[in-house]
Amino acid sequence: MKNIFKNILLAATITAGSMSCNKLVEGESISPNDPQSAPAELVLPSAELALGFVHEGEMARLAGMWSGYFTGSDRQYIGLNSYNATAGDFDSPWENLYTSSITNAMLALKEAEEKNNRILAGQAKVVLAIGLGVAADLWGNVPASEVGDYENIPMPKYDDQASVYTYVQTLLTDAIEDIESAQGFGSKNLINTNIEAINTLKAKFYLHAKDYANAYAYAEKGITSSASDMTLSHEGATPYVNANTYWMFLEYDRSGYMTAETAYAPGFIEGRSNAKTDYQHIWNYLYTNEGWYGAPEPNSHPSFWGGQGNGFFDIATNFPITTYHQGLLIKAEAAAREGMLTESLTALNEYRAYMEKGGYLHPQYQTYLEPILDGSGEPVLDADEKPTYDTLAMKYEALTTADFAVGGMLNPDGLAEGRAYIREILAEKYVASVGLLEGFSDLRRTIKENDVRVQVPVLSGSSIPLRFVYPQVEINTNTNMPEVVDLFTPTPVNQ
C-alpha cells in the first residue's frame, strides 16, 4: 500500500508540474528521464486520493464545527468555530478539490476516452461527479462545464447549481454504462467504485437537490451490503502516507486545535437513547471523555498512545464516501417525504437491523460494560470487593407505526405522522453523519423546517453558516465569478 500511494503522488506531481511549467520550458529539450505526463490509470488514483482528503480534511472539519460535531478550541480554530471565516480560508479546500481532484479526473477521463477505455472513463466520471457535486453543495453556483481546460479557458464560467446537479447525474449515468460495457480496464480502485455505490451517489445528489422521488428510486437500486461501501482505505496507517486525515490533524499535526468540548452532538447522541435504542455504543465509537476535565473529544487517540483505539477518527479507520447505511437513511427520508410511510418504515428498520448487528462500528465498540447497581444505587461488588458489570450489546429494536402516532414514543408533541417520520430520520442521519460533509448538507437543506430539523444551536449571530464562501484565489483571478456572498446566504436550492 505504501508503494501504491507513492506512485499515486508521483503521478499527481508529474501531472500538476506539466500543467504549470509547460510555458516556462517551451522550446527547450525534454529529457527522456523527465516525463511530462503520466498514464491515466495512475493519474486517476491521485484524483481519488485528493477526493478522500476533501471528505476527511479541512472542508470536513469546517463543516463539522458548524454542524455541532466539533469545537474549535485553539488558535485560528477558535475564530472559525464562531463562523469568523474569510475568503482566504477557502483557498486550500478549493484548490484541493478543483486542482487535485476534479482536474486530474478530467485529465484521466480525456485520455481514457481517446483510448476507448470505457471502464477507466467510467471510474473517472464518478470521481468528477463526486467532486462537482460536493462543490455545488457547498458553494452553490460553481465552475463545471468549462472546468479543467485551463490552457484554453483559464477563467471558467460559473454554472448555476441546478445545472451542475443535472450534469452530475449525467456523469453518473454515463459512468454506469461505461463500467457495465466491460471495455478496457480500470485503475487502482482506491474508493471501491461499483455500480451499487454509483446508484447511491445518484440518490444522495438527488436528495441534495430536493428531488425526493428520484432519490428514493436510486436508493432502491443502491448499495445492498457494506461490502459495496465506497470508502477511502487507510490500510497500513502510516503518517503522511496512508493515515486517516482526521487522525493526522487531531493527533499528529494540530493536537488540541479541534475538540468536542462544547459541541452539540455528544449531548444530542446521549439524549437519544430510549426503550428501543441504546446510543452509548455509537457515542463511544465517535467520542471519548479524554478531554480537559473529562470533556468530550473525537475518538482518535490510538491504542499505541494509551487510547482506546479503533474509533471513528483512528489512524487506520477507512473513511466513508457513500455507504449502505447512508443509502438506507436516504431511502427512508425520501419515502417519507413522498408520503410512502410504509416504505419509509421498512427502510428505517432495515437500517436499525443493520445497526443491531454492529453496523458501521468497529467490533470493539459493539458492546460496553455497565456497572451493576443495587437498589440504593451503589455498585454491586464481587467476592474480591470489586465492582461488577453487565456486558451490553447493540440495541436497535424495530420501530412500529405506533411509535410515530400522536403521543407515541417518537411523537410526544403531536406532529403529523409523516413529519414525525422525517424528524426521526433526520436525527438518525445527524448521528450517522458525525465528521461527514453530509451532516452539514442536511442541516442546510432543512434549515427552514423548524418542526423536524436537528436544532443545532447558533454560536454567533442569528444563523449557522449556510454555505462556504468563494475563495480569495477565485476573487483575484476569475472575472466570471458571481457576486461575492457571505456564509449566511443559502445556496440556490436551499433558498
From TrEMBL:
This protein's record includes keyword Nucleotide-binding: no
UniProt keyword annotation of Cytoplasm present: no
Domain of life: Bacteria
InterPro entries reported in the protein's UniProt record: SusD-like_2, TPR-like_helical_dom_sf
UniProt keywords, alphabetically: Lipoprotein
Matches recorded under PROSITE patterns: PROKAR_LIPOPROTEIN
Pfam family, one: SusD-like_2
SUPFAM superfamilies: TPR-like (SSF48452)
Protein name: SusD/RagB family nutrient-binding outer membrane lipoprotein
Species of provenance: Flammeovirga aprica JL-4
